[in-house]
Structure formats: structure tokens, C-alpha cells
Amino acid sequence: MTRVKICGVTDSTDRDAVVTAGADAVGVIHGVPVDTPREVDAATAEKLADGVPPFVTSVLVTMPTTVQEAVRRVDRIEPDAVQVHDGLSPAELGALDSRITQDIVAVVEADAPAIESYATHADALLVDSVDADGGGGTGETHDWERTRDLVDSLDVPIVLAGGLTPENVADAVETVEPFAVDVASGVESAGGTKDHDAVSRFVRNAKQAAEGAV
Ligand SMILES: O=C(O)c1ccccc1NCC(=O)[C@H](O)[C@H](O)COP(=O)(O)O
């Protein structure tokens, strides 16, 4: 079974549509020093996370520069998990882990050095296509075979992200067999607004492909 995270919801209508579509996780982006239409302020992030129902995981996606900053955001927004995009070293992720109860998803690039050291300090790795400023949401795919190697070689759950769409997600799941897939821009009608039909097709195609891959 491959889980699905839909990232970058900016309002409650999109959040509820993502849940209705059967996604396993909802990503809320707050505290990123890059220009993105998917970022929301702290109060909105708090409300969006609070409205995610039981048995679906709310994920705060953030780019902290210090452990303290990450702790402050997690304590304010109270997500079920935090996805750290850039900014913290493996040792700092370890320090963060000792200060929060939430699971930590560390973002890495597929060809980054020392991925294993992130794996020892995170509950999951999200392998993404990252832009020059370290941000995600690029809409760009990367070398799926490299991510497949990580799935085979590391014990930690691997989440595949970057450039996924309803059209290519089945192929991605069959190639990589990840723990989960993640999408932001590939299911939008405009920047920061989800296309509900595309969200449903993405979830359906990912899960059907996972069943076929067993
Ligand atoms: O989506 C963003 O705009 C973003 C900006 C800064 C940091 C992280 C961001 N997104 C995090 C995600 O988990 C995205 O789903 C992931 O990067 C995949 O994006 P896409 O290629 O658009 O599907």
C-alpha cells in the first residue's frame, strides 16, 4: 500500500476535498523563506491542521534555520508530523526529535551526499526535486531509479516527491515502490488552489498502481 500526501493546501475547502479524496496526509506550508503561493500564515496553518480528522495525518512543512524556530512553529501549529525542508543538519534534526513528540520527515535531494545520516535522525525521508533556494513545489521530476535505490538500501520509509501528476504517479509508484508519494503543484488549477478532480485522480491512480505492484 502506498500512502499519499497532498501538500500545500491553503484553505479549508481544499483540505476537506483532499481528505474526501482519500489522501493519507495533508501538507500545510508555513515558515519558508521562498516565494510560493502555497505558504500560509501561522494562524491559518493552525486552523488547517486542526481540521484534519482522525486517521489522516496533518503535516507542517517548514524551513527553519534553528531547532528553536522549528520547535516554536510545531508548538504553535500542533501538526501530527513536521516536514523539514532544508536548514537543519542531521544532528539538529536529532535535537529537534528530542524536543517534540511529532514524527520528523526530512527532505533530501536524490543525489545529495550523506543521505544515510539524515535517515538516522528522521522518521521518514522525503526525496524531492529542490530549487536553488532549497524550496520544493518545483513541478520537476528527478531520477526515480536513484530513489528506488534508497528504498532498497535504507530502513526508513521513503516518500517520493517532485513533479508527480495524476498521469505519471502510477509509473512512479511501480518504478520506485515508495512508502508514500507526495504532490503539490501537479494537482492545482492555479498556484495555491487545488483542482479537486486532479486530487481524486492522483489518489486513485497512486493506490491502484500500488495494489498492482504487489
Ligand atoms: O510547494 C511549495 O511551494 C514548497 C515551498 C517551499 C518548501 C516546500 C514546498 N513544498 C513541499 C512539498 O512537500 C511538495 O509537495 C514537494 O516539493 C513536491 O512539489 P511538486 O513538485 O510541486 O509536486
UniProtKB/TrEMBL annotation:
N-(5'phosphoribosyl) anthranilate isomerase (PRAI) domain ranges (all copies): 4-204
Pfam families the UniProt entry points to: PRAI
InterPro entries: Aldolase_TIM, PRAI_dom, RibuloseP-bd_barrel, TrpF_fam
Record's keyword terms, sorted: Amino-acid biosynthesis, Aromatic amino acid biosynthesis, Isomerase, Tryptophan biosynthesis
One GO process term, biological-process aspect: L-tryptophan biosynthetic process
EC top class, as a word: isomerase
Top-rank lineage group of the source organism: Archaea
Family (UniProt): Belongs to the TrpF family.
EC numbers for this chain: 5.3.1.24
CDD domains recorded: PRAI
Protein name: N-(5'-phosphoribosyl)anthranilate isomerase
SUPFAM superfamilies: Ribulose-phoshate binding barrel
Residue stretches spanning the membrane: none
Pathway: Amino-acid biosynthesis; L-tryptophan biosynthesis; L-tryptophan from chorismate: step 3/5
GO molecular function: phosphoribosylanthranilate isomerase activity
HAMAP family according to UniProt: PRAI (MF_00135)
Catalyzed reactions: N-(5-phospho-beta-D-ribosyl)anthranilate = 1-(2-carboxyphenylamino)-1-deoxy-D-ribulose 5-phosphate
